[in-house]
Amino acid sequence: MFTRLLGKPNQEANALATLDKLNETLEMLEKKEGVLQKKASAELDKAKEHTKAKNKRAAIQCLKKKKLYEEQIGQLANFQLRVHDQMILLEGAKATTETVDALRSAAAAMKAMQKATNIDDVDKTMDEINEQTENMKQIQEALATPIGAAADFDEDELEAELEELEGAELEEQLLQPSTTAPTSSVHALSAKLPNRPHKQTQEEDELAALRAEMAL
Question: For the segment 32-62, what is each residue's pLDDT rounded down to a tens digit?
Answer without folding.
Answer: 999 999 999 999 999 999 899 889 999 999 9
